[in-house]
Amino acid sequence: MFYKEIHEMKLRVIIMFIVLLVSLVTTVALRPYAAQMMEEMTAQLEEMPDFLKSLMGDVSGLTRLNDDNYYLLSQWHGKNYGQFLPFVVLLIAFPIFAKEFDKKTIYFLLSRKNRNEVFRTKYLAGLGAVLIITTVLSLLGPIAMNLAGYSTAFGDTLKVLLQQLVGASFFYSLFTMISIMSRDQVKPVVAGILIVLGLPILGMIDALSWLNPYPFILGSSVAQKGTIDWIYLVSLLAVTAVLTVIDYRVFEKKEV
Amino acid sequence: MLDEAIKVKNLRKTYGNFEAVKGINLSLVPGKVNALLGPNGAGKTTTLKSILGLVHYSGEITILGETIDVARERISFVPEDKSFYDSLTPEKAIKMCSMLMSNFSGDKAAKQMKKFDLPMNKKISAFSHGMKTSTYLAIAMSQDADIFIFDEPTWGLDPLRRDEVLEMISALSESGKTVLYTSHIIPEVEKIADVFSIMYKGVILYTGEMKGLDDRFVLYSLPLKTVIDKNDFTAVVKEANVLKVLTDNPKEIARLKEIEGSKREEVNLESFFGTIVRGNKHVL
Prior knowledge:
The complex is a heterodimer. Chain A is mostly helical. Chain A has helices spanning 2-29, 31-47, 50-56, 60-64, 68-80, 85-102, 106-110, 115-147, 155-181, 186-203, 214-217, 220-225, 230-253. Chain A is built from 13 helices and no strands. In chain A, helix 6 packs antiparallel against helix 8 and helix 6 runs antiparallel to helix 10. Chain A is elongated and about 70 Å long. Chain B has helices spanning 44-51, 68-71, 90-100, 106-115, 129-141, 159-174, 186-192, 213-216, 250-258, 269-279, and strands at 6-15, 18-27, 33-37, 58-63, 75-78, 147-151, 178-183, 195-200, 203-209, 218-223, 235-238, 242-247, 263-265. Chain B has a 6-stranded mixed β-sheet with strand order 5-6-7-3-8-9, with helices on both faces. Chain B is elongated. The model of chain B has no long low-confidence stretch (mean pLDDT 93).
């Protein structure tokens, strides 16, 4: 069954890789311009009156962009790749079950294989793809920087990668649930986009800030303090485990 | 050998407030073509879905003496909607099925697809409806299953291909396989079924052997004014100016003969089905 699942997601994975590789090359290529731009902005900031400086808030990150490691963390993990990670997961997860219901091929599968096996294979194939994409694209960041002649360590990337793997798994279990509940392929995409956009909006409310997984996925704590946010990581893992069990229960009960 | 390949006991299935299957009992004779005949909406597909565990139901179903979860891999199913993975070519579909099912013969499928004149390297999405159905049937028939379940298998096929498929279904039972076959096309059922059940509005109205149907039953047209007790007969239908009476009771047959103006009609599956469906208590 893995062959079928891999065959079905092959094209989507290739397209995603190409798009994100272009983004990575662009990020690395812009490195010298970013440093130059930051120097100019820092100089302009120093000339600003104090009250304007206070309005700008904390701009220490701008000066740190001269650091190759920080540039990679903020511009690749924290922006170009990190911000798209939930959409990458959505693109992998939404059709896994919904397409079978939509195209009515689910009859072929469920009349020949037990639900447990169908769920296990489909879920793991999708999750495997998500984790591989996340790992490869994450590690490609420092590899590309080093190949371009910048001295970039892997330490921080590995810390962010761990957070990204957990974050991607969380989004995968959430999107899979919508995929199982849907009988067409449009609803899971729309619902997924609403979730990706809605969680940060809800997170803007102080009391609900924990609902926004973006700072975690983008590696804010690694960039700011150099440490993994273990509490959020363990909590998100627990939520992911619960969501996976619910995914299975929903699939087990679903009539086709 | 089991007496029944599939045994369905008091099967009920509701969708919201609508009761699609109303407590039916059904037994499939092993090694025979068992047909489930009924108009659209009779509950045939829901019955099949229940047998295959695709929907929740109340009642008891055993397949080869086991539950569906144990027996699933001994069944090959062709659903009403014959949608296969249309991004595949038949060649890749065979490869996929070989990996997916331990009882699948790739060689047999390739041979069958060639017999159906299917282009092996063209994507299934580019196929006509009939070609898609042929692809599905070729795959399903290449499984070494004990029970083959077909839901309206010939829908959308041209007459030549339809006959070919019907012959293949008959051949399955000749080789000892059990077939459960649903259709609303009476001549098809008449052609291949060994045993048939008539289903209407969620109820099985009749189950019996196809062979000797015209010997067992008689159908009489009686003048409209004839006074009879409906409960004495299998089915009674009031038509424009006659009463049609169907029975297999020898005493009643003798009585019908004596009624003035009575006329015996030929019993074939079409007249039998029409009289049973229109003349049962659920309809009148």
